[in-house]
Amino acid sequence: MREADLPVLPAQPGVYLFKDAPGSVLYVGKAKLLPDRVRSYFDQASRRAIPKMGHIADEAQRLEFITTQNEVEALLLESNLIKQYRPPYNIILKDDKQYPFLAITSEPFPRLVLTRRQSKDGKRHFGPYPEAGAVRRVIKLLETVFPIHTCGEPGQHPKKHCLYYQMHRCSGPCLGAVTPEQYQALFAQVEQVIKGDIDQVRERLQEQMRRAAQDMDFEYAATLRDRLQALERIGGTRQSAIQLGTEDLDVLGVALAGEYAMVQVFFFRRGRIIGRDKRLMQGARDAPSAEALTRFLMEFYGQATSLPGLILVPEPLEDQEAPTAFLSQRAGKQVELRMPQRGDKVPLLEMAMHNAQAGLESEIALLMRRGENPALAELQQVLKLPARPVRIEGFDISNLFGEHTVASMVVFQGGRPQNSQYRRFRIRTVQGINDFASMYEVMTRRHSGSLAEKTDPPDLILIDGGKGQVGAAKKALHELGLDHLPLVGLAKREEIVILADGSELLLPRESLALRLLQAVRDEAHRFAIDYHRRLRDKGVAKSVLDDIPGIGPKRRHLILEEFASLEELYRAPLEALAKLPGVGLETARRIKEHFGGPGSGGDKPGFSIEPR
């Protein structure tokens, strides 16, 4: 697999799955930031340090990803996916396929331990986790929050206090400073946090910190503050998926862009996420997302071998009774379609929606990278073009109080800008402000003479403007016998597409076709403004050069051709000016002295340059 074949990854935590050509999972990994972690598999230094990374990337044919709210959620999701797929490159599988657990022992003074098996000796188990290091990190974090002992089983009272007790990191069961009952109560709080219920523990720590501050025990108050901060890190990274008890359900998320829609479904069994599936659908332009959901329900669950009793959807379906009856018949039991408004299931729905959007954007970006820009297909459809508009030319007019009127032409090939094919035009036949006449001139010049001979004809012409500008361009094309060239305009304020016949087309805001037209229009506007500023600067420079002795029309023209702006002229070295034909060292020195620029010996410039 090449790095260029990777999907576009959002800068978020999540889980990634390397797959081979038949679609089997080769490796499941987690990441704090998906792009950074996945790209490391293609970094030569990383591949030399860990050869396995190179083997995975070389054998893989594609990569999928699932975003999560945080890294710990990614850790737990990674665990479930590794258990489901048993990928050959995940190290955990080599340890007798036994996943590590976090356990609380049943001793009078319990401990947090790592174990490979769920024994029946009274331990309370939590997990499993994908690898032992994850369990150790969780234990270390819990030891930061709670004053639990880290040594072996407490024995006889030692003669002196240990360092952990002095630092308030241990409650001192070895010293008899805490009873077994008190210590059991402490571990009840530990268990609450492991399960994700931190509210009561937070309130208790906050109250203890307030009391310590009131008693002027600021050292202990600072310790409690640090524990609260550690607790907040745990609370901010818990996995919402484990808060479902033993419930079985599927969660659907949907996203639309142009003619494409993506539905992602997450499978939760006995309160844990066990997998995910997704479908990219075409023909969704102008269709409501509920229609895409209904189509997915009918097609996907029509082939499913088992269904849960509850399916969460992000919005009600138009005709929910029919799909519900169909699903119930398929499942042989009552299936409920529900859109949660509040409660612990809302975050699950948000996760599915977020992943559907990220997945759709990734798929579209990948299509564009491969030259299969979906916006072009949508443009062909909405504008009823005979072929996909591979070459799009955008035009804009720019002027300032009727002076230095210019036009720009930008070219997009396959949806991407082609800077080498951009063109600028100085309007010759128009006096004052007349955008319509200016557009007529530039369209005539573009499609006649040497420019028309040297460049390919466009598949679509886009005008930055409304009906007047489009009408002027249409008139020029008609007189040249080019009525067959597709022509549209895009008004700035309303973002309405103006067709050649003057009719209007309003595209949805999420339309890929509209996004591409906006990109072409904005680039044409930027290019025209840039050219106009350069001409304006040259106009000012011309008046400045007229005041310098020895600078006639020829030398002035030569200098203005060499330097695009006043700032360039001001900052030019003396030697660069002197090398210009017909200028020489003495004339160059007079220019620099007049401007007071670098190399003149003056302290201040003779004119100001406004920053842009």
Layout of secondary structure:
Blueprint: E1 14-19, E2 25-31, H1 34-39, H2 44-49, H3 51-59, E3 62-67, H4 71-85, E4 101-104, E5 112-115, E6 124-126, H5 132-145, H6 163-166, H7 180-194, H8 199-214, H9 218-235, E7 249-257, E8 260-269, E9 272-281, H10 289-301, E10 310-312, H11 321-331, E11 336-338, H12 346-369, H13 374-382, E12 391-400, E13 403-413, E14 416-417, E15 423-426, H14 435-446, H15 449-454, E16 460-464, H16 467-479, E17 487-490, E18 497-499, E19 504-505, H17 512-545, H18 553-562, H19 566-571, H20 574-578, H21 584-595
Parallel strand pairs: 7-10, 10-11, 12-16, 16-17
Antiparallel strand pairs: 1-2, 1-3, 4-5, 4-6, 7-8, 8-9, 12-13, 13-14, 13-15, 17-18, 18-19
Provide structural commentary.
The chain is an alpha+beta fold and 612 residues long. It folds into four domains: 3-94, 3-Layer(aba) Sandwich (GIY-YIG endonuclease); 101-241, no CATH class; 244-369, 2-Layer Sandwich (Nucleotidyltransferase, domain 5); 378-533, UvrC, RNAse H endonuclease domain (Nucleotidyltransferase, domain 5). It is 42% helix and 17% strand. It contains 21 helices and 19 strands. The chain has helices at 34-39, 44-49, 51-59, 71-85, 132-145, 163-166, 180-194, 199-214, 218-235, 289-301, 321-331, 346-369, 374-382, 435-446, 449-454, 467-479, 512-545, 553-562, 566-571, 574-578, 584-595; strands spanning 14-19, 25-31, 62-67, 101-104, 112-115, 124-126, 249-257, 260-269, 272-281, 310-312, 336-338, 391-400, 403-413, 416-417, 423-426, 460-464, 487-490, 497-499, 504-505. Strands 12, 13, 14, 15, 16, 17, 18 and 19 form an eight-stranded mixed sheet that branches. Helix 10 (289-301) packs parallel to helix 11. The longest helix has 34 residues, at 512-545. Mean pLDDT is 80; it is low at 91-97, 235-243 and 600-612.
